[in-house]
Automatic annotation (TrEMBL):
Keyword vocabulary terms for this entry: Cell cycle, Cell division, Chromosome partition, Cytoplasm, DNA integration, DNA recombination, DNA-binding
Functional summary from the UniProt entry: Site-specific tyrosine recombinase, which acts by catalyzing the cutting and rejoining of the recombining DNA molecules. The XerC-XerD complex is essential to convert dimers of the bacterial chromosome into monomers to permit their segregation at cell division. It also contributes to the segregational stability of plasmids.
UniProt name for this protein: Tyrosine recombinase XerC
Pfam families: Phage_int_SAM_1 (PF02899), Phage_integrase (PF00589)
Catalytic residue positions: 183, 207, 281, 284, 307, 316
Subunit structure comment from the entry: Forms a cyclic heterotetrameric complex composed of two molecules of XerC and two molecules of XerD.
Taxonomy of the source species: Bacteria, Bacillati, Actinomycetota, Actinomycetes, Micrococcales
Species the sequence originates in: Brevibacterium luteolum
Gene3D superfamilies: 1.10.150.130, Intergrase catalytic core
Amino acid sequence: MTTSPDTAAQLPGEYAEALAAFAEELRVHRNASEHTVRNYLSDVRTLLTFLTDDDGHLPLDAIELGNLRQWLLAQSRSGAAPATTARRIAAVRAFCAFCTRHQLMRSNPALRLASPRKASRLPAVLQQRHVDAVMQHTETEPSEVTARTDPEETGETERSPKDEALRLRDAALLELLYATGARVSEIAALHTTSIDTDRRLVTVMGKGSKERRVPFGLPAQRALRAWLQRGRPVLENDRTARDATALFLGARGGRIDVRQIRSVVHTATAGLPDSPELSPHGLRHSAATHMIENGADLREVQEFLGHASLSSTQIYTHVSLGRLAESYRQAHPRA
């Protein structure tokens, strides 16, 4: 279908009304992000489109488990990846539960709908020595992303004030990402008022607009103070005035975005030997893994990361067990 997932065009009236009501439920009552809403509506559309043909559509209250299984089979035959199928099943389950609560369906046909098993892939993490190397390098050298001028070309012996400001920003970004384990979107959304450098605390707005306070250490404190006192004022301009309290600024003065942060992290970690290619989420994984390796309690790490469920945090125990197994193979005489 060519319509956007948030519209009800080209669906039968009954389906269109139910989908519109479901969208309102997600936005108003569940406080879902627009990204989640778009994905859920698009996923439910695949089912509703499957149940519609030239002869009409299957009424909502006539949908049975067998119809959902036929839809799943069609998804599989179309080449949908297991992870995509699992996401679509989650959306359809939520939609069917909504329809049942509002008496659009007599019973919930998705209760016994099984999800395909997703391949378990452990997240890439940096070794602790690699994290130290990244931070030390950023303290002294501008990255390829931030370096805008070449001293040999300009005849200057020192980097420009703007390049130095960007270096200070990158150092603060990397320190804060690793120190707090925050999501890249959470870091991009921070305000200057979100940071308490004296008490070394940052107030983060997480998923579902849930607020949490996360501590950070002395290296992040030093980097943030240097950025706020000597870096940020250099980049401030008319663009900054549109979002005056943005903590991190881009080279043009506006609030930094997620794409720019990803670029900073990728460039800072790209040259590390024997290290995986890393994203901001990789720094989050690394922070959590290192905390568990150094004795942190799983529930403490859950609070630190802002996970709603402990099951989301348990993957880091698998990462640490993987490291333990590797160390065992290398060091134990009878491994």
